[in-house]
Design a protein that fits this description.
8 helices; about 425 residues; binds molybdate ion; 6-stranded mixed sheet; Molybdopterin biosynthesis moeA protein, domain 3; about 20% helix; Molybdenum Cofactor Biosythetic Enzyme, Chain A; Molybdopterin biosynthesis moea protein, domain 2; alpha+beta; binds ligand LQZAQKY5
């Protein structure tokens, strides 16, 4: 009688003789294989929050376009007024924002000016109204004046023709302000990357529906759709699919028509019901599925009818980690952005952990009192830990023994763009 093999406590033990691709090697390969796929469109800047520039954005006008006044006060020629008390005659009129002074301020005169007004010709300095005494047709103040005080030079912020942002930049609210300030009304953007999300598994049902004991609610789909949106892409909900090869095949084909990239979860492993990896394998395009990463060891990467597919593991924590670490940079490239791996911060660990060298590990983490805490369980199904956490701690391939105080890399969800 043959004896059963001994049970292993560590289900992640690396099988002897198998080459596990290090995360960096997998990423380098993905970077070299993938490129932008989206079409472009011209949009008004006001509608372009979070959109990705397809061309560099160039200032059409300097900012400010004309020298102007930073305060309410009086404009004059600063160099004339040294130490001592000065009485300077005011000339007729004023310069206000949108209502400039037409003439030139004569030598040794001052002109009433308001904040944002064009600096009148013949002046270079503005004295604050609080610092002068207004007398009949004159102002009196103490010198010396600092030449150029309270006056903004034309183009001191931005020069016309300056490149504001390179192609691939994603616009923030501040960027909409800068583009508008420099006269840029319309820009060419990439159309958003369309990312289809499919959940697979006979056990899945929809939250809110009645569920039997052998069913679980689909958590990955809402989580991944929301993550894709936060990352700036267009999520396409392809729903849940049972573990039936023909249904999955149809689903992948529909997704390949509607989307630029497909994320599936479940069935990535090599069990009897792991149809996703089997289907991708059949296409002959499946590559890179033994990545030395935990969680997320069973990751199926393939191409279905021309569209890349990330066959993510079903366990929610693994699905999220693989999305952030492996799918995110690829989706960025496809969307027209730069390759980007967030570096996070090196901070002291508040925990102890032993790991195998040769595999990168990500733990759910957060920072308290300047130290990185980790979720007490590494169970990849413990979805509550993803919410408990505020980011991930990345334990390098080489790391083995982490003790309190060991510097570890903490990457917040915000660093990933979540
Ligand atoms: N013999 C082995 N078994 C397993 C291995 C292994 O190496 N050898 N790896 C384990 C690891 S690690 C993971 S992760 C899973 C990944 O497997 P699959 O991608 O095939 O995922 P499933 O088996 O379909 O599901 C795993 C787990 O996650 C739950 N799940 C799936 N989809 C969802 C969803 N949309 N929302 C919430 N939860 C979901 C599912 O019910 C399972 O509990 O394989 C291990 N097994
Ligand atoms: O690594 Mo699995 O991918 O832990 O749950």
């Amino acid at each position: 009688m043959t004896r059963p093999p001994p049970l292993k406590n560590d289900c992640f033990a690396l099988p002897p003789g198998v080459h596990w691709t290090p995360v960096d090697e997998a990423l380098a390969l993905l970077q070299s294989r993938m490129s932008g796929v989206t079409e472009t469109e011209v949009l008004p800047v006001a509608d372009a929050l979070d959109r990705i520039l397809a061309e560099p954005a160039v200032a059409e006008r300097s900012h400010p376009p004309h020298a102007n006044c930073a305060v309410d006060g009086y404009a004059l020629t600063g160099a004339q007024y040294k130490e001592g008390v000065h009485r300077v005659p005011l000339c007729e009129g004023r310069s206000a924002a949108g209502q400039p002074f037409d003439g030139r301020v004569p030598d040794s005169h001052a002109l009433r000016v308001l904040t944002g007004a064009n600096l009148p010709a013949g002046t270079d300095t503005v004295i604050l109204q609080e610092d002068v005494q207004l007398e009949d047709g004159h102002i009196a103040f103490h010198g010396p004046l600092k030449i150029g005080a309270n006056a903004r030079k034309a183009g001191e912020d931005v020069q016309a023709g300056e490149t504001l942002f390179p192609a691939g930049h994603r616009l923030t609210p501040a960027d909409l302000g800068l583009l508008s300030a420099t006269g840029v009304g319309r820009v060419t953007f990439h159309k958003p990357l369309r990312v289809a999300v499919i959940s697979t598994g006979d056990e899945l049902t929809e939250a809110g529906a009645a569920a039997s004991d052998d069913q679980i609610y689909d958590a990955n789909r809402p989580m991944l759709l929301a993550a894709i949106k936060k990352l700036g892409h267009e999520p396409i909900d392809m729903g849940r699919m049972p573990d039936q090869r023909d249904v999955l095949k149809d689903g992948l084909t529909r997704a390949a028509q509607e989307a630029d990239v497909i994320l599936t979860s479940g069935g990535a492993s090599a069990g009897d019901e792991d149809h996703m990896s089997a289907l991708l394998n059949e296409t002959g395009t499946m590559a890179l599925w033994r990545i030395a990463i935990k969680p997320g060891r069973p990751l199926a990467l393939g191409v279905w009818e021309g569209t890349p597919v990330f066959g993510l593991p079903g366990n929610p924590v693994a699905a999220m980690v693989c999305t952030l670490i492996l799918a995110r940079p690829v989706m960025r490239l496809m969307a027209g952005q730069s390759w980007d791996i967030p570096q996070g911060l090196m901070l002291p660990a508040a925990f102890s952990k032993s790991k195998k060298a040769g595999r990168r590990e990500y733990l759910r983490a957060r920072v308290r009192q300047g130290q990185v805490e980790v979720f007490p369980s590494e169970g990849s199904g413990r979805i509550s830990g993803l919410s408990w956490a505020e980011g991930l701690v990345e334990l390098s391939d080489e790391a083995q023994d982490i003790t309190p105080g060991t510097p570890v890399r903490y990457i917040s969800y915000a660093d990933f763009g979540l």
